[in-house]
Amino acid sequence: MAFEVEIDGVHVKITPLAEVELRKGVGGLCKFRCRCGLGEVRITRRDLEEIGGSSPLSAVKYDVELTREWNELQRRASRGEMDFFDYEKEMGLWMERRRIRGGLEALSEYETTLRVRCPFCGRTYRFLVKMENPLRALEAMDPIEAFKKLSVDLRRHARPLARVGFKRGFGSPEVYLQHLKRLAEEEDLLEKLSERLRDEVEALFEEPRTEFTLSQLRRLKRSIERFAAEYKRGNETLLGGELKALISDFRG
């Protein structure tokens, strides 16, 4: 029977690979009675921390902390409370979580085998140990979505908007801010336009007579979808570059 416990936010599940019963222990995580009958064997936190000579518990705990920080930032963004420093922090968290896990969607897990020796008779018992980050990362924002959540206004950010905008050929912070807003708004406009075009092409599939072949209509539909995706990526790159420039200037 498996024994489950939470350690510093990490969900730990210990499953015996032998016929022993795990019970909650005193001075340890859990304990079981050895077959020798001479006493009880404890499984401690230190046993988990030293599995394989590494520290998997610390690694998953770190991921829990990053996920908690990430989710709090996303909640602030949903309330419209993000600023340039928050955006910079979000990008840093994004890169760090990708570095340690290779992705944001999957839960961080560590599964291995633990060997515990009875101190009375020397018999060794094996356990399957699974450590898991129970927190699900909230959806990440692309640069366009991040800009929409940023609390950027002329009253607080006129100077960085003016400096960065001037370097890019804009005559005033107002004009530069409008340029940034247009880049962000184009995504919604493009989505509406591409959806309308796709609907018109799909309607032609139902027409009994049309000057286009089915193959041509399929290619046309794919071209519309591909163009919309490429245009969005271009806008994300442009807006991402502008935000990085503003962050750099904002930090001074």
**Number of folding domains?**
2
Outline, from the CA principal axes? elongated
* Beta-strand residue percentage: 15-25%
Number of strands: 7
Structural class: alpha+beta
Please give the share of residues in helix. 55-70%
* Largest sheet, spatial ordering of strands: 1-2-7-6
**CA-atom Rg in angstroms:** 28 Å
Poorly predicted regions are 102-107
| Main β-sheet description | 4 strands, antiparallel
N-to-C span: 58 Å
List the total number of helices: 7
- Give the H and E element order: EEEEEHHHEEHHHH
Rounded mean pLDDT score: 81
Walk me through the topology.
Elements: E1 3-7, E2 10-16, E3 23-24, E4 30-33, E5 40-43, H1 45-49, H2 56-78, H3 84-101, E6 109-117, E7 124-132, H4 143-149, H5 154-167, H6 173-206, H7 214-251
Antiparallel strand pairs: 1-2, 2-7, 3-4, 4-5, 6-7
Give a short overview.
The chain has 252 residues and is an alpha+beta fold. 55% of the residues lie in helices and 16% in strands.
What would your notes on this structure say?
This protein is an alpha+beta fold. It folds into two domains: 3-132, no CATH class; 143-251. The protein is 55% helix and 16% strand. It contains seven helices and seven strands; from the N terminus they run βββββαααββαααα. It has helices spanning 45-49, 56-78, 84-101, 143-149, 154-167, 173-206, 214-251, and strands spanning 3-7, 10-16, 23-24, 30-33, 40-43, 109-117, 124-132. The radius of gyration is 28 Å and the shape is elongated.
Which terms summarize this structure?
four-stranded antiparallel sheet, alpha+beta, about 15% strand, 2 domains, about 250 residues, three-stranded antiparallel sheet
